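Q: Here's a chain of 528 amino acids. Please give me its 3D structure as tokens.
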Amino acid sequence: MSNHAYESAAALRPRRNAPTALSDLAQRFSLAPASPADASALGSLSVTGVSVDSGDVAAGELFTGLPGFKMHGASFAAEAVKAGAVAVLTDAAGAAIAHAQAPGTPVLVSDDPRAIVGPLAAEIYHHPAANLTTTAVTGTNGKTTTSYFLEAVLSAHLGGCVVAGTVELRVGELSVESPRTTVEAPVLARMMARAVEDGVGAASLEASSHAIVLHRLDGMVLDVVGFTNLQRDHLDFHKTMEGYLEAKARLFTPEHARRAVVCVDDEWGPRLAAMTALPVDRVRAYPGDAQCEWWVSDAAVSLTDSATTFVLHGPQGEEIAASCPLPGLVNVQNAALALVMAIRAGVPAATAVAALARAHNIPGRMQRISQRGEGRGLCIVDFAHTPDALELALEAVRPITPGRLIVVFGADGDRDQGKRPMLGAVAARLADVLVVTDENPRSEDPQLIRDAVLNGVRSVRPDLHDVEECTTWRGDAVRRGVEICGPGDTVIVTGKGHEPFLEVAGDFIRYNDAPVMAEAVAAKWGRA
């Protein structure tokens, strides 16, 4: 991210967008005027954009007030109109609110505005996705890594790529921090419209399960969608793993995509592949007997540059020799998925392999802060925040660690409490030295979260040998990890990755693991 010029989100709009008559939109999407006065205003109005966020409305746009989990979006109609919105779209409950908030502003009503806002945005921005090569990756872990691998490959082939995911929103050289894994449909549509305007040829998206359920990817048919894995996460939202799988499966339908590529290394991948009506390629990176069209062999990690070479075998007898710039078989899995998705999107295999090898230092994903050599230890920041992801991360760096493996980690507050002792047990089993710290306590007592993690540590290591608890500040724990790291050691800080804030007792405190670790490395060994 650091190589791009940061702008406000408004800069990601198209410079010019041909207006669309509001009466045409009302007819096409069965939008009913909330009152006779609203009906009489339709004929003379047109819109040049759409937004669901009153703080992100531009002049001439349609504001969509969606029902929310805590507040109705129509409550912000006055702010939207002040920013330049010319009309409001909402549901029946929101219409009265919008009229009270912004009297005189036309209000249109839909039974389910959230379900239509994606197709509505596509219409207003003139279906920009149809002019790009589009991909989206879903799954519990690996979405960001795979999407950045795809961004590198698609850019090499098509001259630039939209990035929209957990870390950033980017069109060309314009980039802003992303507020969530998958932004609302109007933001995606306007980013793609800007990309078409600027001659960018592709888009690499991350698709969260929440976003799929909440219709944020509606309104476009993606060229290729990919699935990484399904692991324990977000059960506060989906309730069961079956519900979680069903949410993911909604993306793998003809309404959303043309082709699918599915990793079948876990129990959920084969089930998803069997559920989809799309043409599907199945990919296997780990040893196993799952039926597949593509599989990996000869994976070998380099102790010197932390890359992993492998051979990808295809359905027509292809043998593609490739190099993943990140360590571990889990990243080979991400790389193999990206390669097959790129090939199915029309990228020549040779172009894809060359671009993949250069796609290193993804923010917060096995991000190397210090490389081993000249007396330095290997220092890494990684987003692993579930038990499965932590296990894979530690297993990935163990083969490139001749000395001790040191992990700095914690667990989230106000989230799945069951995974806290599981994280502690995984760390105690696979790492040599543990530094337990805070992640995002949110509204919970940080000590209670750490106690739950330490209970899991005790289940494996009852005497808490080589276990430290940092009760002050996460940055202190990161510095402690670097302080005890020797030349042959690896210290990996997990849980937050790219995240730019700590969330503590309702406050969002600006913080990122990577620069804190970089400063600790510079203090100990000098700057690289």
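Q: Can you summarize the key feature?
A: The chain has 18 helices and 27 strands.
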